[in-house]
Amino acid sequence: MSSLTPAYPIPHPFDEEQPFFFNPPEDDQDLPLKEIPGSYGAPLIGAVLDRWDFYYNQGRDGFFSARQEKYKSTVFRANAPPGPFIAKDPKVVVLLDAVSFPILFDTTKVEKKNVFDGTYMPSVNFTGGYRVLSFLDPSEPKHNALKSYFFNVLASKHDNFIPVLGKSLTELFNNLESQLAKSKEVNFNPISDNASFNYVFQLFCDKSPSETGLGAQGNKTVDIWLVPQVIPLVSVGVPKFLQLVEDLLIHTFPIPAFLVKGKYKTIFEAFSSAASPILDQAKDFGLERDEACHNLIFLTCFNTYGGLKVLFPSLFKWLGRAGPTWHANLAKEIRNVVKQEGGVVTFAALEKMPLLKSVVYEVLRIDPPVPFQYAHAKEDLVIQSHDASFKIKKGEMIFGYQPFATKDPKVFENPETFVPYRFMGKAEANLKYVYWSNGRETEAPTADNKQCAGRDLVVLVARVMLVEFFLRYDTFTCTDEVFLVGSKVTFTSLTKAGTVKTKS
């Protein structure tokens, strides 16, 4: 495998004195104490009006930016979607800056019980009658047991992370190439979704979903189970004359779990049988096998597969916009390192690719796969933004909108711009302002916090995706558009490795 030296010029910004190194001041106890601005409006009506602004009148980002501008504050009061009648109390304190946002991670001061989906909680009938790990606060005894169990499961699968993913990605790329050969453009999302689910199922169950009752398109069964749980948080983009109908159908009343009972039974039976070896370990953590299985399904199908449904298209969205010069930069780094490692993609090899690492973190910063974070104040709190202090009363719900916090202009220069090398060199220190995993990227998930148990796996999977892609291709083109909570990516060309003109 020869190294790639593109004919087009490559910028060389990878030094220690980058323009993207910032170290904003930490909390300043001398900041003035101010009342939290904003209003919840009249009962019921105020929440419905805010919901319509969020979904239809202003859009998600517009909803927050309009209020930030109105109140001249990154901390304010508003009603969070979906509101009545799905949520009993939609009132929240909104946080939009990098300084105030981390209060959501401090479980000594905030409670994370039943707030995984925000101001509402889907019926436990979606998960076999159990409140699964994502809805538990660390103070609850089952939290430590379940999270410790998952750490053990992930550790037992460590050696399979890269090899199993490599096989799934080969199938993904073959499928993408095949379809692109027949058409001028190909929707990447369904191809990515199928490969992502095949990977996570194979990883945890040691067999393909096609060998179970789920079949070769098992992800479609999982999607049917997923949608009713998250649909209250999105708009499907209907024409204006159908917005009232959509609002009544998916934002006003919860979709009952019995509608997907049959699909979930199929999922449960597949995992219960195929994942027997790891489910049998649950008793060592004081867990019943049945409860462990329902939790494993949520971890695999909701947390991991659901996250990859958003993350993989996002990777190619931003790299597609970055263009061929940055594709060449990545390809050169990846191929040189893999060649030095004997042609094998290993954990050690990935750690020797600083540009690759930075690109993945930059995607997670600019387009976090989980945009919302919630918590209830355990006590009266004083939080701080860059400019002021604010008092939050015990019991109030705090709502952080992550895409604004991780694009805080007082932390990151040109925050709306995708900068592939943003976290290289000294600027790697700014990973403490990357919050996608419900915690700082510089801190570790533990059984006592709410940071994503599979955080490191997600970062690894994103890196391996790009490594395998640029070992196989020199460059690509695509288009992107907003799709539900993520992006729809359409590939328009793929250029195989070695096709780009090189210099000796």
Automatic annotation (TrEMBL):
Which residues, by range, are in coiled-coil regions? Answer: none
DNA-binding among keywords: no
MF terms per GO, please?
heme binding; iron ion binding; lyase activity; monooxygenase activity; oxidoreductase activity, acting on paired donors, with incorporation or reduction of molecular oxygen
Q: Which cofactor does it need?
A: heme
Cite the Pfam families for this sequence.
Answer: p450
Any one biological process term the GO annotation gives = fatty acid metabolic process
Q: Which UniProt keywords apply?
A: Heme, Iron, Lyase, Metal-binding
Residues given in the record as heme binding sites: 452
Per the record, the similarity remark reads: Belongs to the cytochrome P450 family.
Q: What name does UniProt use for this protein?
A: Allene oxide synthase
Query: Highest lineage ranks of the organism?
Result: Eukaryota, Viridiplantae, Streptophyta, Embryophyta, Tracheophyta
